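Researcher: I'm preparing a figure for a lab meeting and need a structural model of a single chain. I don't have an experimental structure, so a prediction will have to do for now. The sequence is pasted below. Please return the structure as tokens so I can convert it later.
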Amino acid sequence: MTQNLQIKQKEKLKSKMEKLSKLSEYKLTLIYALRDLSRNYKKISSIILTLFISLFILSAIFTIEDSLNKELNNNSRALLGGDIEIDYNRNVGNLELINQVKEFATVSQMVEFSTMISTTNQTKNKSIFSRIKTVDQNYPLFGKVGYEPSGAFEKLQTTENTILVNENIFKNLNLEINDKIKVQDKLFTVIGIVKSVPDIGGAFVFGDFALAGKQTLELLKLNNLGSFLNYEYKVRFNDGDNPKALSKKIEQLFKDEKKVRLRYHEKSDGPLKRIIDNFSQFLSLVSISAMLIAGIGIANTLLSFINQNNMSIAVKKSLGFFSKDVKIVYYLQLLILLFIISTVAYSFSFFLVPIVDVYLSAGLGLNIEGSFSILNYFKVFSVGLLVLIIFSIPTINAIDQVKASNLFRNVFQNLQFYYSKKSIVLSLLLLSILISLFTIGSARPIYSLGYFGAFFVCLLVFYLLSNLIIKLFKGLKEHPNISIKVSVKNITQTKSITPITIMSLGLGVTLLLTLAFVGSNFKREIAKSIPELAPDYFFIGIQSDERQIFEDLIFDMDKEANLEIVPMVSTGILKINGIDPNTYIDSSNDSHWVIRNDRRSSWADKVLKDNPIVEGKWWDLDRPDKLQISLDSKIAKDFNIKIGDIFTLNIYGREIEGEIVNFRLVDYRDFTINFAMLLNPQFAKNIPHEYLATSKFKNLENFNETALLDKMPSLSIIKITDYLEKVTDLLNKVFIAVTVISAITIVIGLIVISSAIIVQGKIKEFQNLIFKILGFSKVEVILSSIIEFFIIFTSIILIALFFAVIGSQFIIENIFQITWKFDLSIFLQVTIGIGLATLILIMITNYKYLSPKVYPLIRNQ
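Model: Understood. Here is the structure written out token by token.
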């Protein structure tokens, strides 16, 4: 019994000693890894640089996206204007029900409408199309209104005919505080500037807007379609009340109201959030492309580092270290390096938040603040870890090639990447996890998968291209020119950097060219093509008894004006084949906007030239008393509508059934008059209607907005170029952000090439030594490098151009649905710029190998 106890005690002691020994071994390994890393960090500087740049971009995208989402979530009530919004669109609504809501909650009534604001006391008066919001004393229920001077906002409710205009109106109309302006035919006093409102949306994001008191509605004529009138009731629940219970109570109150739409603060940021999610997804995919390209450089630099430590590894093995032990040290160094770099990169990303905040606060009224997120940090670290492991496996496995016997032979063994079946399977598994991180949970997973598919197809093509070039040049006869001979030899040698250069630079050039072509085509379409086709002005709200007056006024200003006038009526789709479309068509449908609110419809006697029929027939003249509908073919496809289907329309409070008789191909991009639905004129001409007009002037200077508004005060005038400028400005900012990230991808590619040349350092030194002994001049060696680069870069550009054309054409024609054209100037700018930068980098990197010291190399030192 005593003997058994002693045996057990010995086993426990042995186990304890083994644990202590392992713990001591791990501690020593960690200390050694840290010491070795501190001595050699300069040798892996390109790994540190590429990893930092890639992780910094990724961290910045995650941090800004997270900050934006938190801002939207935290201020969802302010963005909507309440806990719930009761939207009656163009109708005042059921005030009895609204009063019932006031019994248990605070309600703020506001009405938005569009109209013209004009100056009155200037030498040459100006006007501007604006969105005005009339508010009551309860506004805003959440958030704050930014305005100046002090007390101006409060004055809106106490002083009649007062108004606050936004900074753009104030600047463009050259206004001063207390100036008189005209809204329709009524005079208002400008008592201040509104800088921001909490409930952003529509014109209050990108357009010109103003705030006025609720008494304004009684002064103006706002019954026309051109006013785009919208009645909204914002509801705030009392503190301590149950929001869910009160929300259900409001739903029950308004369940029979067909014209009402209830919006909840949880979903108030829907459209804005979708834009943010889609844009951040795209930028994240570009950043992971940069990381994968950086991975190639990491693998090369790490291989160079291991080659430099070849003898050190051999010494360790001679002392009894196994390859596994040496590998653990290198993996541990990479892990330490990754932890430091990812922490620094994530920390630095917070410095970008204030910069982005400046643009968002000015443009959207949003204020973001950076906050640490353990999830985002973990995602950044995980992505870095996966990329490091995927690309370091074949490099660190090369340690198996080092023999302890190398010490006795004084032979430099140049290590190569080593792949095994096990390492290939592991790399593919880790790559799948990496792709999943950027696919699962993204805004559009299929797009992410498609992007990765295209990326790896390009990578494969560039790899095959490098092999093809090597094979072709191996088969060529020797050229008499020495420099050409040397360049061909450099391309075709076993350890050539040709594959690495072609893959890393090829992917970067493809990405940058694709985005450059997309940007140039989009801006060209807006800046040139659209204005040539588009009218100068839209005129909205022409009453039926004002049509002739309007025509006379326009032609008095310009007899050669190209004027188009069409009737317009408000229609709303209540049912499709007897079923409420809102029950099965949700907001994710591209054409959901058609059923969201009442739309403007028109009619025409003949088929419009720019709206050709793609299915069905034009009006059946034998049925003039029956409503017939011509529908946009895109909407028909999205809603799965067939010829003969029945729409139930709400036309001025009456429910009228109409049959779908044809589909039209509608192009909304040309800025001419287009409607989703056209009605047969035999039926529609008896419906009370207004007119919508466009005009393109022969001499634009002859057009006088204020003179027209003096005669027709309820008219709304929209200048097309003003909106094109705003859209162009927004797109320019977006493309700058995208181009910067793409350019960083090129920079990473250049670092990869530089690291590949460094990997070849020993070979280059020996090669240049031979050239030196044979009497080659530096000029001939440099010329061979230039020829080598020209051959490789030309092949890269041809393939990159091929992929860029396909990619950009797909994006332009299928996503933006505009005409794609090849831009030679953009191609030359990108090609020459990248070519020169790459050539200079190669020459600088190669320069230190041009003058090798003869005797140390001969002695194999």
